Structures are given as C-alpha cells and as structure tokens.
Amino acid sequence: MNWAETIVQALKDGDVSLVAYVPDISIYQVTKLLEEDDYFHVVAASREEEAIGIASGAYATGRRAAVFMQSSGFGNCVNALASLNIPYRIPLPMFINLRGEIDEFNLAQVVMGRSTRPILDVLGLTHYTLESEDRLLRRISGALTLCYASRQPLALCMTPLLHGGKIA
Fold first, then answer.
1. I want to staple 160 with a disulfide (CB 3.0 to 4.6 A). Which of 81, 90, 117, 165 is the partner?
2. What is the pTM of this model?
3. Position 111 pLDDT exceeds 80
C-alpha cells in the first residue's frame, strides 16, 4: 500500500465514513481514492471552516468524519475549532498538508506552514507529523482512536516527505 491507500484504509478501519476537504493537488491521491470508494461520502468544501462545519454536523448525527486541508487554509478555521469543536468536545481528525516545508517554491506559503503546529499547541490540540510511510497505518489508526476517545480535534500534519509535495 502507498501512503494514500494507507490513509484510506485507516479511515475505514476507524469507521470514518464522511470526509470534507478543500481541494489541493498534494492530497489529490487520497481524495480521488475516497471518491471512488462507495464506503465514503466525500464533500468538497470551498473554505476550511465550511469543511469543519460539515464534519462537525456529521458527528452530531452519529457519523464519524475527517477533514483534509492545507496549512494555509488551517488559519481560516481556527475560530471554528476554538468556538465549536474544542468547547463542545467534537472530535475531528484533521489531515493538514504542510506547506512551507522542504522544496517549497511559494514564499506566501511559508509563514502559515511554519505556524500551523505552534497554533495547534496554543489551542491545546494533539498533533502528529507524518513524514514517511514507516508505521503510517499504526500512527493514523492510533491517532483516530485517541481523537474519538478524547473527544477533541486532532491534527495529522503531512509533509512533502510523505506525499511528494507540489511542483512549481
């Protein structure tokens, strides 16, 4: 299994059946697999806080959901997390594609890419950085278990070392 197939398998194993995402070429390999699999209900959102709202609503109806976004968009949803998910204990696994990392070609992506994990720390949210396929299924599966057991959002930060990144 490659990294994208591993993520899809971990979501299935964790009973996560709804995925909201903001389209991004670096996660296309995952979202394409999700859209092709009848197990998942996949929703493309126009903004990250919209994806957070969709996934949170799914949880309120008894369905597990995850969100995929890139780090530049993570800044758009901080208020949604801080005023909805965290105080109301709505668990939400977030797969965040980190920009501003190795091989970054767009200067505008660097600051938010570097700020994502410190912002997660300030919010008190657990996060893990995924840089390789080594033990990837175990890491994601364990993170999903923790996310739902703690009833708090959790971030899985994916670097270009995992998915190859974007090309200029």
1. 165
2. 0.95
3. no
Helix H or strand E encompassing 112:
helix 110-123
pLDDT at 35: 96
Does residue 94 fall inside a structural domain? yes
Backbone angles phi, psi at 16, to 5 degrees: -90, 110
Strand (E) positions, the chain?
16-21, 41-44, 64-70, 93-97, 126-130, 154-158
> Does any domain span residue 7?
yes
User: Cβ(16)–Cβ(64) under 8 Å?
Assistant: yes
Beta-carbon count within 10 A of 138 CB: 11
Structure tokens at 23: 């389209």
28 is in which domain, residue-wise? 3-108+117-163
How do residues 36-84 score in pLDDT, each as one tens digit? 999 999 999 999 999 999 999 999 999 999 999 999 899 999 999 999 9
